Amino acid sequence: MAVIAGIDIGTNTLRLLVAEMENTQSLREICSAKEITRLGEGFSTKKAFLPAAIERSVAALKQFKEILKKYSVNHLIVVGTSAVREAENRDLFLNEVKRQTGFDVQVISGEEEALCTFLGVNLVIKNQTEPMLVIDIGGGSTEFIGAEGDAPNFLLSTELGVVHLTEKYLKSDPPTPEELKSLRLAVDKVIKPIGYHFPPKGLLVGTAGSITTLAAIDQKMTAYDPQKVNRYPLSRAAIERIYKELSLMPLEQRRKTLGLEKGREDIILTGSLILLAVMELFGYDPVYVSDYGLREGVLIHLYQKEYEETSS
């Protein structure tokens, strides 16, 4: 039994997972943590990390390092996704992380991110015989993964990130109908040309913070429960209702919504709209939600590399 740890440095959220693994079909969580640091703040203006965003993110990574000291970890992987891929001053950030934490960050491609997301989701949505489309709506990008059985047949990474799009289009509080319309047009412009990849009939599975938050809101969760989120069928009608209600609220009122995690109140509208666009344009209903995603997939990928490949 190996103890594996992974850290996912996202555009909006940093996540830590420590788990026991003896194969790639399951993992037993020992510890998890996350911090919303908004590392990609300001990217809609210039693709460079702000000093305050670097400071917040490094502080969170230092907290994760303290947590890791409590466990006998065999292998650790730290990955950077969309924001770290794109930042003009990413070397400054990576060097600062190394200096203050000792972590070596692996910057993964959009396709690698999509593959790891699929590996994570596959732990939850098992034994599917029908075609499946997985959507991972992140802070800096949105990934689409098509699959039949256990094998993905396409991996697409797009620049539809909820942090960037929110900053660019939703400038009013609450956003105006014109702003929301402009945002939807921008989303459709990206999604429509790639829709021919999507299976016309099959399962839609959604992962990452925007979608899991919608599942939590729909269930009026006072405390987030991954077990109630995994495989939750979230209907298009429920998403439309939540989206319409939240779009009329100023941020201060939105923060009081049951199930809405603090730090997501501004970006939840954009995440909802991306998901609705996919469901409306291509006829999916419901979306099955997976709490598992990139973070879990990174551990599976690491386990394969360290244990299965070396033993073969």
UniProtKB/TrEMBL annotation:
<dbReference type="Pfam" id="PF02541">
    <property type="entry name" value="Ppx-GppA"/>
</dbReference>
<feature type="domain" description="Ppx/GppA phosphatase N-terminal">
    <location>
        <begin position="20"/>
        <end position="305"/>
    </location>
</feature>
<dbReference type="InterPro" id="IPR050273">
    <property type="entry name" value="GppA/Ppx_hydrolase"/>
</dbReference>
<dbReference type="GO" id="GO:0016462">
    <property type="term" value="F:pyrophosphatase activity"/>
</dbReference>
<dbReference type="InterPro" id="IPR043129">
    <property type="entry name" value="ATPase_NBD"/>
</dbReference>
<protein>
    <submittedName>
        <fullName>Ppx/GppA family phosphatase</fullName>
    </submittedName>
</protein>
<dbReference type="InterPro" id="IPR003695">
    <property type="entry name" value="Ppx_GppA_N"/>
</dbReference>
